[in-house]
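User: I'll paste a sequence; please echo it back and then give the predicted structure.

Assistant: Echoing your sequence first, then the prediction.
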Amino acid sequence: MARQKLDSLPSDIGAWVEGLFDTSNLGLTLQSGGINNKVYLLEAGKERVILKMYAAPPAGHPDRFQAEADFLSYANKVANGYVPELIQVSQHRRLLLMEFVPGSIYATDFQPGKIEVARAAEFIKALNADLDAAKAGIRSQATEGYLSLTDHASNVDQRIRELAASHLPAAYQSTAKSLIRIVKDEWDAAQDTLESVLDEGTVTDSLDQSYLCVSPSDFGFHNAVPNGTTPVFIDFEFSGWDDPCKLVTDFFLQPRIPVPTSFKTLMEEAVAPIIPLDILRPRSQLLQAVLRVKWITIVLAVLRPARFESMLENTGDQAANELIIERFARAYRIIDGENGGLS
């Protein structure tokens, strides 16, 4: 990405940034990604920091800016070194300045080993070591951090109802329709399993709030930068209080950098002080079938017209074809069981 000048930002933001640094040699570079917000590398002389700008949340949606600001502030106190340092917060501008972690996020072919997964588990332990302190620092529920399994199922059901093909270029509509049929068939089977187990009563639908944990959400090595031999975790827009069963299950299901299930015990032990394993394990197993389908719909966000439109606002229409092709390929890898995880 090309280096830009501060005047490419809204004037009040540029003036705010200039007021923080004692140099006229300020520049910024838009970072890759940025579907949900804009992230810049800000360079002021030899100093480099990350500037993250958040759009206002739509009505009824969680505030990603506040979630990340709260999480970083709390994590800097209880899990120092696991996340970037939060430097400045501008509430009314909806901006965060945070430490720049040198290097790039892990490549998609990275294979996490015991050292990396143990580091992730230690991070979760640190976040939840003092739940009274956590309650003072973390004010919101994680995005889609439902307490009941049927609420999770309702969310997936809604996502599937939103899947469509007609808004895509004609060349992609046939493949889109095929994917929608596959997802619906898998979802029917998952719903049957969920209803059967809940009817048996071996797993309760709702989780008691006393078992909630602080979760980074969207947690994995796709949101981490190697720092020597250990990861520094980033991107906490969806963070907050969540079901530890969802935290553990999502950690292995997330498809961008799959984590071998041979390390599942490490993550289970990280939340064991919060929730008994005899509740965690059967609930996680049942939740797995639901969240697997949810991950497919997340990857297939291009098939949700409103979401696809919002993605293009930041990536630009010229990236539409590449985005569609990439998301279709990723969805097929999950469906075919090639993504690893808990499939």
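The chain has eleven helices and ten strands. The longest strand covers residues 37-44.
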